[in-house]
Design goal:
2 domains; 382 residues; 17 strands; 4-stranded mixed beta sheet; alpha/beta; Aspartate Aminotransferase, domain 2
């Protein structure tokens, strides 16, 4: 078949034909344990009965409708999201993607403060659109616009003194990922996150917690910043928000958004009925007794059992984990794929990134451990 796609993706050497649970099947008949999770989007795995039933029922009832009219499923999705959010975060704006969520969060920060600058953290990835891309570390490598739309200051991760110096009367917002995904599942310290909250409040700036990859339960809490006992001004989320269906959201307190006025923000497809029906299912799953505790427990199991073979250290939290490799991570990734396990890499060339569905079980962690032990014994790929 003629390939008409833009040649912009570094694709793995396989064609995925179907998926079931935490496994995917290739076109040539291989079954792979998917610890990549559709780049953290397949939150409840593949073929999830609740997601499929909700999608089918909603498609048969109302496939699409504009935001210019009220739709009950959209209101339920809004309510489900703010019910999951920290105290005081009681408004939701639904969009299509993580980058779009960050664009709108940044826009809200500029509108609210009237300021001109944003502070980001080294290693960040906030998206590829104009405002989000300006806040992404190393954007000059791919940023095609002639100039960024505002000034950005970048501070080293966990450097509280640098953060203190960077936040001034010009700062509209500090945007950060509590666990930096592309950087290799690297958590920011609780002290740094707490300082970001204190300093932004003290100096009239907003704190934006980018939970595109680390949110929606992936860390073992609904939002990863909760581990630091911090409530930000704005939360952005996407990826697993609708279980792999395109969806994103900006969450905010009422006092930041209730005076926006008609037309201040907008989207055609954000908050579509199909996505909203799936958001409800995801919210119900995260609220189920013991669900998030199991995510935390599995992360702890990975940390305690998988530092074997070529793995010399493990970072991250819950089911967003970075496994530091003795040799190049890409070699270990490829060797694991040959053994039926699909993992990702990161900007750090010595990190394997795990972002599996949250329905992962202990038996799957054991399989990963055994494959890593096998690599250590064979010493062929390290």
């Amino acid at each position: 078949m003629y390939n008409a796609e833009f040649p912009v993706y570094g694709q793995r050497p396989m064609t995925i034909a179907s998926g079931s649970g935490v496994d995917v099947m290739t076109a040539d008949g291989r079954r792979l344990l998917d610890l990549y999770g559709g780049h953290a989007a397949a939150l409840l795995g593949y073929g999830h009965a609740g997601l499929i039933a909700a999608l089918k029922a909603q498609a048969e009832t109302l496939f699409f409708q504009t935001n210019a009219v009220d739709v009950a499923v959209r209101q339920r999705a809004h309510a489900a999201l703010v019910d999951l959010a920290p105290e005081g975060i009681d408004r939701a704006f639904l969009v299509n993607s993580g980058a779009e969520a960050n664009e709108n969060a940044l826009r809200l920060a500029f509108r609210h403060t009237g300021r001109t600058q944003v502070v980001t953290v080294a290693g960040a990835f906030h998206g590829r659109t104009a405002a989000a891309g300006a806040c992404t570390q190393g954007h000059a490598k791919w940023y095609a616009f002639p100039r960024t739309p505002f000034d950005v200051l970048t501070v080293p991760a966990d450097d509280v003194d640098a953060l203190d110096a960077a936040i001034t009367q010009d700062t509209a917002a500090v945007i950060l990922e509590p666990i930096q995904g592309v950087a290799g599942a690297r958590p920011l310290s609780h002290a740094f996150l707490q300082a970001a909250r204190t300093l932004t409040q003290r100096r009239g700036a907003l704190l934006i917690s980018d939970e595109i990859q680390c949110g929606m339960g992936r860390s073992g809490k609904v939002f990863a910043i909760e581990w630091a006992d911090v409530i930000p001004d704005l939360i952005t989320t996407a990826k697993g928000l609708a279980g792999g269906f395109p969806a994103g959201a900006v969450l905010a307190p009422a006092h930041l958004v209730d005076d926006l006025g008609l037309g201040a923000l907008g989207t055609t497809f954000g908050g579509g009925p199909m996505a909203c029906a799936l958001i409800e299912v995801i919210a119900q799953a995260l609220s189920a007794p013991g669900f998030l505790a199991q995510v935390t427990a599995l992360g702890d199991t990975i940390r305690s059992t998988c530092q074997v073979g070529p793995i010399v250290d493990i970072q991250g939290r819950g089911l967003l984990m970075g496994l530091r490799t003795r040799g190049p991570a890409r070699q270990i990734r490829d060797a694991l794929l040959e053994r039926g396990i699909w993992v990702g890499t990161a900007a750090d060339p010595h990190i394997l990134r795990l972002m599996p569905p949250l329905i992962l079980q202990t038996e799957h962690v054991v399989r990963l451990r055994d494959a890593l032990l096998d690599l250590g014994l064979s010493n062929a790929e390290i």
